[in-house]
Amino acid sequence: MKLSSFASMDSWKRRIVATAGVVVATLVLYSLLYQWGMRVYEGQTVSFIQALQVVVESITTAGFGGYAPWSSTAMNGLVLLMNLTGVLFVFLAIPLFGLPLLREALKHRLPTAADASDHIIISPYTRRTSALIEELRAREHNYLILEFDKDRAEALYAEQHPVIYGNPESVSTLRRCCLSDAAAVVIDVQDHVTTSVVLSIREISDTVQVVSVNKDTALARYHRLAGADQILFPRQLIGENLAHELPFMFSVVGDRGIKISDDMEIAELQVAPEGPLCHRTIAEIGLRERYGVQIIGAWFEGAFVSPISPREQIDSDTRLLISGAPSDVRSFQQETHVMVKPLRERHVVIAGYGRAGRAAAQVLATADVRVTTIDVKDKPEVDIVGDARDPEVYQQADIAGASALIIDLDDDSSILFATLVVRSSNPDLYIATRANQEASMRKIYRAGADYVQSLATVSGRMLASTVLEREEVLAVGRKIVLVQLEVGQLSGHTLAAADVRAATGCTVLAAIRDGTVLTSLGPQQFVFQDDDEIILAGTDGNIRQFEERFLS
Fold it and tell me: What is the pTM of this model?
């Protein structure tokens, strides 16, 4: 790994060598010109060392000690040019050396050591670990960023992040991070560097939890042999989730609900076009009265809303989050999905055959689905080589007759273009895509996607569930998050008194008392106790609001 300090040092060396070379070349050139000019225009012969002396005195403006034998215009002009060159060198030295050195002196001195305990060391700062940092900050949990890029470390330090600048492969650097007293270490470097970092960690501590974020599953065994405790593959998980989100996969894969207890289950449901729920309000549907289930929330164009007004109308772009007895949830799913038009052939196009695309294809292969793959590179198992933004590529893939499209591209702008292109050619196609930046999700929804999942959010949630002992994540890759948390300041209060849903947007699904899951929580009757734990449903933002309100 080449650290930025080395690059910075090399830059200074190159700058000094180049400047010295220019100066020396200028002195030599002017000396030769002076010798030639004195011979041609003044009729005098001078040695090179005499010429060099005159050039140096001219450029440094030190004067000639009364020696000024030039009578010709050409020689006086040459001496004047040399004087101006000296002044120019002075002015160039300021931006080349003076200002950079002044900036370096005025910059914050980055910490090289820390005094911390029970903290989580994160190295380096990436899009994935930034989501984990947000989780940790919301929980007021100690963390320390070990960053090997100096510019990024300075930016993080300016943003008040606890950061140390150094090489994560260095044992001495890890010691300065108080690794022996850390709760966990999260590594998100290049896969081939991870093994070296893990070995350095294990040289200091055999007990600290080591979690690595990986791309290449083939290298996972080496990381485990080196001593990594947990190896996470967010891209594979997001690919599997995208495949499972296709409408017809509900019946193919079976029950997609999450079991909370023997008498409670949580499930997401895509409203079927022309089904019994479409174009009706929540009050008209009568979920509890007709189906025995209750609605926790719903997604409208990518935005999760909870609680939902009874007057809210849902359509085919709506996804419902419901809870109820497993038998009631299953009956509800079956009754609402039987009205979906049967597909003559399940044909899915995957645009972008990276790790997520490959994972999605593997899930679909188990469900008797015909898959057509598109990628800009000619790889094994790629059916069409071309740009996923090119409409002609989708014509080759028979997108008009496809059931769904999964987009797995590394650039959100390309995802937007691909979604717009495909939506314009097939308005009825179901489009599921990933978003590399959480901020891009709403734009991708507006471009026409039916389902968007943030890679950063999935990664952050996976990491949080792994390194935070007090939180158990029940659903990592879903649109909503189900978490198990301490009761905190809810202790001694009822649900009605705390008004959790109105205050945070979260729904309390169950309480855990003495190892027993309690789902019948009377809003006015059930009082939480200190040792209770609760199961919550909500978005990442909802969960953070709950933690800030009741756990901080």
Answer: 0.56
